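Re-run with default settings, no changes from the original entry. Doing this only to confirm the output is reproducible before filing.
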Amino acid sequence: MEGLLVVKPVSPCCLARLETTPRSATCSHCGRAFPKKEGFLDLRLPTRRRLLHLVNNLPLVARIYPFWRRHSTRLLTGGGLTHRAELAHLEAAFSGLSGPFLDVGTGSGAYLGPLVGLGPTFGVDASLAFLKAARRHHPEATLLLARAEALPFPKESFLGVAFGPTLNELEDPRRALLETARVLKPEGRLFFALALGRGRRFGLWLPTEEEVVSTFQEAGFLILWSRKQKRFLLGVAEKPPK
């Protein structure tokens, strides 16, 4: 819970202060109540229940996902990049920063290990099943139920944000990147990794490399470097100084 000493979550609808109790939190502006579910504060705003989101909430999917995540990088890159190398790039992206950090779409916590070793870390995900898996592996991180398109944090809260292939699963990735830019401090860094393609397939956003660049630029990011390996792209972007 170390991250709570650094960043206090706010209401995702009003960005106002939350009044918390052991069982819930209430927006100090509009009075909206947010319950706690199995120890996680549920700050998700209502959205259309897509099939992909329903699948991600299945406990079986959350149990097998770490195996897939450990091998997906190698599969998507044709063996050109391993998951361990992906994590090494993540650590290098935030070298010299002490946090706080945010992992958006943390899933089972693939990025939490490197991040909690660097400083106070939050992880958000819309799936309760995934957050329970992440908590088992990284109890030192502060984990919240929240959606990437409506992050429950004040502006300019984090020095570093990690955004993995959850980007592919979002209905509105541009909105999620705008939210990421909002919660990043000026000159804060964004590490990103996602699968590439040509449009939407099976509910996934599979952009070309050019579409990734334009979407990040529209959200106000400057891409510092990127590496494309077959159908996989990772890189580091920066929020420009004021």
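The longest strand covers residues 184-195. Residues 44-238 form a domain with the Rossmann fold fold (CATH 3.40.50.150).
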